What we know:
The complex is a heterodimer of chains A (306) and B (108). Chain A has 306 residues and is α/β, with parallel strands linked by helices.
Amino acid sequence: MNEVYDVVIIGAGPAGLAAGIYAGRGRLNTLILEKGIPGGQILLTDFVENYPGFPDGVVPFELMEKFRIQAEKFGAKITQDEVEKIEKKDDLWNVVAGQGEYLTRTVLVATGSAHRKLGLENEGKYLGRGISYCATCDGAFFKEKDLAVVGGGDWALTEALFLTKFCRSLKLIHRRDKFRGEQILQERVFENEKIEVIWDSIVTRISGSATLESLTLQNVKTQENSEIKVQGFFISVGLDPNSKFTEGLLDLNEWREIIVKKNMATSQPGIFAAGDVCDVCPEQMATAVGTAVAAAIGIEDLLRKY
Amino acid sequence: MSEDIIEVTDSNFEEEVLKSDTPVLLDLWAVWCGPCNIIVPSLENIAQDYKGRLKVAKMNVDESPMTPSKFSVMSIPTLLLFQGGEIKETIIGAVPQKKIEEAIKKHL
Lengths: 306, 108
């Protein structure tokens, strides 16, 4: 007979690791499955300034390392494996992954989210040849270059500000006439001499030869087209939940986020969801942690009745 | 770092990669790159599983800027598969281990 876990947590980002700390302290037999390394999507950001408890900000890579150590200290086991599906097996759940199958009484889906693509022709062709979804990863390749960023949320503003460390000029393209991102980030963007904001505009064409050379923009109010010459284009138009492997099993909303109820329970008994992948979490590290802790407590409650 | 993964620089790139008898999977990375860390466990697994048939190497792009620039690398992590001195595969971004293996297998 295979080992049966009390809870299998899918994803070791802020949500999965926070739930792991609580589940471990609850003395649950806890397994965390992570397809890459612990830390999740927040590792793509260079610096976090809005996580409570860190008045001088914190490097996500260092903070996530501490989350991991804290989860393991209380007994959560972290294994590298990529989950393909969850299926019912008698009164248990069987989590099927690339390297093995894991039987468990409960599951917490904490798989987070991934960069949304614009869906334009040539977007794939110039990936790594001028197009990027990660300023922290690729910014340094664009020293003294002319860049564009598209988006208007926290992420886009953070990416633009980070890129000004390297670039000569930066155009920040946004489809509306105001940003959604934090006010403090907006102030920094408006004060930064390298950044020019292009309002009410969308990118309609990506052009180049071997590498990216220009973007065609359309003003959504006047319908006017214009072309800008850039060597780098950073896309930060939002995040899509990593929920594909739960399709057909869990109820998802129109954005494919997992619908959660009280205690972060999903439409299937014994399966919970927390963090960016669920419908109530506004893509912040603090809310990922908060919803995950609520889920871990819900899971402990359920197992007590088991 | 796993002992199965070798460190390559601009100065020994030709010797270790271009002139290698076995195919070489070269990982271009930097310390400031979060996603570069994400694929490290996959590379360690691959280095172990394909020992003898494939050489897995890492190059720090800050310490060795010439090689990435020669191959027009503008994004990391980038994995380049070299065979007989030529690039056979280019994988950009932190992709699952399975995808890396699919790309390698065609050439082994």
